[in-house]
């Protein structure tokens, strides 16, 4: 299967630059994965498509203010460091700019010296290991000095940091938001639970590999990035109980979907699990756990549009995307949503 098989034309003006004022007022394209039929609704209509005995699986990862703007030492030339993975001992794997000036041994400073760092290693993929020095608690220093690591297609400055967090975010560690969850309000979550819909949480810390384009012609030649994820015992129990009772497991976002599919048994049973996953889901994949998916609209030729095509069929997805373009839906991180069921 070719990467170009997942191409579609997207006008630039449909890429959402700012969050909509009310989270659950975003539009919702409801897609029947069997027939390909769609409906145009709003996200606050979601409860109409849920049934008692279903469950929602949400990713409770919280985004780090992981983008640091500072100066190189000595000399003061501008630099940017983007935190990716905590490697322990005050050391993080990072993306850096300008790469040519930030080799092993280079030193950097942020916030007039409140935070300094030294590049200790250059990794084969171009990332760097940076060992930081600071007073106090690192996450508090980062909260003062860091900026939200918005995707490269968002050019607007974010006015309210919390709009790039889900209302249920809890476990700090992501370099990007699990954006399908941005549409939920606490009130909407309470409403679905009152209906008898279970709510369970997994944690997958989203890496920037999410935005890395597929450069190979054959999709099977693409190498997925690894991300750390956790499935607690109570979530595993909820999934098993839901399926045993005839309900649907509805994953909120591709990250939740990839998490449960990574650790499910062949028969679809779940156990509490934790570890790194680089699962790549594309058409032909047999889903073990996921019955339905709440997701945003994804980039052309991305691994994420391949995942949703695996669930609903490439033709159905591309037709639904064409319809979304015609109807002027908002795309990507701050855009509108789909419910594939």
Write the layout of secondary structure elements.
Layout: E1 27-31, E2 38-42, E3 55-59, E4 61-63, E5 67-73, E6 78-88, E7 91-97, E8 107-110, E9 115-122, E10 128-134, H1 138-145, E11 171-174, H2 186-194, E12 198-204, E13 227-231, H3 233-244, E14 249-252, H4 254-263, E15 273-277, E16 292-296, H5 303-312, H6 314-326, E17 337-340
Parallel strand pairs: 1-17, 3-12, 3-14, 4-11, 14-16
Antiparallel strand pairs: 1-2, 5-6, 5-8, 6-7, 7-10, 8-9, 9-10, 12-13, 13-15, 16-17
Helix pairs in contact: 5-6
Question: Which CATH architecture of the largest domain is right?
Answer: 3-Layer(aba) Sandwich
CATH class term of the largest domain: Alpha Beta
Strand order of the largest sheet: 2-1-17-16-14-3-12-13-15
Q: Bin the strand percentage.
A: 25-35%
Query: What is the CA-atom radius of gyration, in angstroms?
Result: 20 Å
Q: CATH topology of the largest domain, anyone?
A: QueA-like
The total beta strand count reads: 17
> What's the N-to-C terminus distance?
24 Å
The secondary-structure element order is: EEEEEEEEEEHEHEEHEHEEHHE
Name the CATH homologous superfamily of the largest domain: QueA-like
Largest sheet at a glance?
9 strands, mixed
